Amino acid sequence: MKKFILSAALSFLTVASFACTNLIVGKKASVDGSVMCTYNCDGFGFASPLTYSAPGRHAAGEQIPIRGFGPSGNGRYVAQVDYTYGVVGLMNENQVTIVETTWDGREELRNPDGLLDYFTLMGIALQRSTNAREAIAVIHQLVQEYGYNSTGENFVVADKDEAWIMEIIGKGPEQKGAVWVALRVPDDCICAYANSSRIRQFPQARKADKKLGFCIVEGECMYSADVISFAREKGYYEGPDADFSFREAYGPLDFSAIRYCEARVWSFFRHHYDTAEIDSYLPFINGQTDVIDHLPLWIKPDKPLSVRDLMNDMRDHYEGTALDMTADVSAGPWASPYRNQPVNYKSSDGTDMFRERPIGCQQSGMTMVCQMRDWLPDAVGGVTYFNMDDASMVAYVPVYCGIDRIPDPFRRENNDIREFSTESAFWMNNFVANMVYPRYSAMIGDLREAQSELEDFYAEDQKTVETEAPKLTAGEMTEYLTRKTLDYTDMMMKRWDKLAKLLIVKHNDQIMQPSENGVVVAGRRTSPAYAPAFIDAVKSETGDRYVKPAE
User: Fold this and answer.
1) Is 345 within a domain?
2) Total structural domains in the chain?
3) Are 208 and 221 in contact (CB under 8 A)?
4) Do the Cβ atoms of 379 and 400 come closer than 8 Å?
5) What 8-state DSSP symbol labels residue 451?
6) Are the CB atoms for 424 and 128 separated by under 8 Å?
7) pLDDT tens sequence for the chain (551 residues)
8) N or C: which end of the chain has fewer CB within 10 A?
9) Looking at the domain assignment, is residue 496 inside a domain?
10) Can you tell me the distance from the alpha carbon of 297 to that of 265, in angstroms, rounded to the nearest whole number?
């Protein structure tokens, strides 16, 4: 357990301030009654392996050493509890899941002396909770006792029955605790977070719960008792309590937060609602806050969502929208939805410019879709569909929350950011992705074929797992689910090795040879055409230079 807290925090040390995306689905908004949430953890130059923390009992007086984003040095500990639950990735053995996005907020509210960063909080709360509400209470208690040192953060805290969104920010130097609000996502709705504060007004209680130390509106809302009074004290708010907006007080939006963050939420909603209605929010996405100043916090989708829907949503680049990244000259000759950094840049005449920031991006260290189901035993009901690197470029591998060891390709020791290895999921995925990025439209079909092949197989095979696993004893089920997870991962690695070899042979020297079932076959070679927008831009820029004269 101690190893988990230390290593999990360190694995995210280099990405504390980078952007992530969470999508949330209530149980009545899913096709099968699942509660679901997602996480793309985005930031350049890091690999984010899968971790495992075994359940266990602990001796009185035991302490947990903390080495996260907070103060450095020895002698910093959190008191251990009597019993901790097993955790695989960001889901525990009770199907409690916590994912996050960072929105920074008011910089003066960061407390550099606080002991706990957001990711350490997530790990400890998962080890100590049986449901989402309990996890929120644990987070509150921990920051009150030990202090919070991260900036503004959103947690999605979900279990097999419900999903909550929790926004939290510290109180500044030398002040322990944090101010926060948590809302339950209605069961028939979907919600999303993408690095901006989104909670505005919220239901309010008359007084705080004396035992828990925070306010509760049963089944709807929980919040720190001083969330409004602290804002008044700092000069962030002066109006009546009923009109208080958490976002306006602690995380006000600017154009960057809207276009790079809220636009991702807008695109997700657009996939699952009347597009004309969602497009009516385009003035907001374009920064016209005098026309409209917010998106809905959640919506009721036009039809229930599946796990595969969420996988595809995590691969979004605004295709088919006004922000489509493949449709203009900046997509290059191969209609690429990827852009080099930085997001903000200047033209040669000094004009300030920007690039779109979609849900799917090349800098992801890992991606996951989490599914929690109340009609199955917890060990098999909770599944994290996981892989390392860009969601658009990987196949999601089912990882059950009831396993007792991590597949080798996802383990920390096999994913060294400084050394390529064919035993590393991170490097095999990057090997393939970095061949596809430069020639996207020519190569993406081959990748999609391999991706669909694996994900189709996993979906079909899981039907058998869900039937057979509940028949087993607890010990047999653990071994069965672990073996399935190991086999799924091994299958992915072998298929990606085959894909890498296909791409270099099929597309050698920028031509295209025919292929069937992932293998090059005899036939006529072709030269894939440039994107029409790029061809038109070349003609516009060069005039008649490349115009072929009439014969």
Assistant:
1) no
2) 2
3) no
4) yes
5) H
6) no
7) 333 333 333 333 333 334 799 999 999 999 999 999 999 999 887 889 999 999 999 999 999 988 766 555 556 899 999 999 999 999 999 999 999 999 999 999 999 989 999 999 999 999 999 999 999 999 999 999 999 999 999 999 999 999 999 999 999 998 999 999 999 999 999 999 999 999 999 999 999 999 999 999 999 999 999 999 999 999 999 999 999 999 999 999 999 999 999 999 999 999 999 999 999 999 999 999 999 999 999 999 999 999 999 999 999 999 999 999 999 999 999 999 999 878 899 999 999 999 999 999 999 999 999 999 999 999 999 999 999 999 999 999 999 999 999 999 999 999 999 999 999 999 999 999 999 999 999 999 999 999 999 999 999 999 999 999 999 999 999 999 999 999 999 999 999 999 999 999 999 988 888 898 888 888 888 888 899 999 999 899 999 999 989 88
8) C
9) yes
10) 9
Note whether 76 and 179 are same-domain residues: yes
Q: Is residue 419 part of a domain?
A: yes
- Give the length of the chain: 551
314 and 422 inside one domain: no
Per the omega criterion (within 30 degrees of 0), is the bond before 358 cis?
Answer: no
* Pair 150, 295 in one domain: yes
Shared domain for 383 and 314, answered yes or no, is no
